[in-house]
Amino acid sequence: MSFGKKKTLAFAVMAMFVWASSAQAILIDTFEDAHSVNFSGPPGTMSGNELSPAPGALGGHRDIHSSITANPSNNFIDNSIHNGGNSRWSISQGDELEGISMVTWDGDDNDANGVATAGLGSVDLSPLGEDRFELGIDFMDVPGDISIQVWSNGGADTDTVTHNLAGGVFAPTTETFLFSEFTGVDFGDVSALKLTVDGTVIPSLDMNIDFIRSAQPTPTPGVPEPATFGLLGLAGLAMLRRRRAA
Ligand SMILES: [Ca+2]
Ligand SMILES: [Ca+2]
Ligand SMILES: [Ca+2]
Known about the structure:
Strands 1, 2, 5, 6, 8, 11 and 13 form a seven-stranded antiparallel β-sheet that branches. The chain has a six-stranded antiparallel β-sheet with strand order 3-4-7-12-9-10, with no helix packed on it. It has helices at residues 3-20, 226-245; strands spanning 25-29, 35-40, 46-51, 62-70, 76-81, 89-93, 98-105, 132-140, 144-152, 157-165, 173-178, 190-199, 206-215. The protein has two domains: 1-22 and 227-246; 24-218, Sandwich (Jelly Rolls), CATH 2.60.120. The protein has two helices and 13 strands, in the order αβββββββββββββα. Helix 1 (3-20) packs antiparallel against helix 2 (226-245). The model is unreliable at 11-22 (pLDDT under 50). By secondary structure, the protein is α+β, with helices and mostly antiparallel strands. One calcium ion is lined by residues 50, 61, 63, 104, 106-107, 109.
């Protein structure tokens, strides 16, 4: 390989790296540490567990919890993380079952049912101007409500924002919760977080969530941004390939 080609390749690789790292985000969870609850019972039945440690989860520990609110056919609810290695939070409510499922990031409190509202200490979710939560949802068959509850200031402040989702999701989609939808919490000093899926709107909800993260605003169109360099990098690689082929 000539020096010129090496330089082109180096530029292309560098540009792609810049491109890949341009979307600044803080991963709260990518759901790659497995644990689950799977149970049946009358309304009021609940189950949960904490995975400690859960290296891929914010704070290094993760709680899951589900409760059944209606179950006329005596079916099961499954609340699992990384089931079969799928890197998802998966909720599966049996036929006619209604229930509520949650994931809590509150540190090592050894209590999957309660929230240690100061359990994370003080986490900055917006060190680079992140202004939103993004939820990657790639499957949701029927309508349901998703809530994010944030605690800050050592648990002294909290607020919950709920989005009513329509379901019918069969391909990856992103649900955005802007920090500005919350009131009275400090995203630079987060002490606990809870994500709740309310599957009581329509029974038998099934859902897969791929990740939750805090993210920066989407770049304004027309302003030069690193993605342009990424495209240049790809063009460089294409040129290199053409030269090799020639
Ligand atoms: Ca915990
Ligand atoms: Ca807890
Ligand atoms: Ca994932």
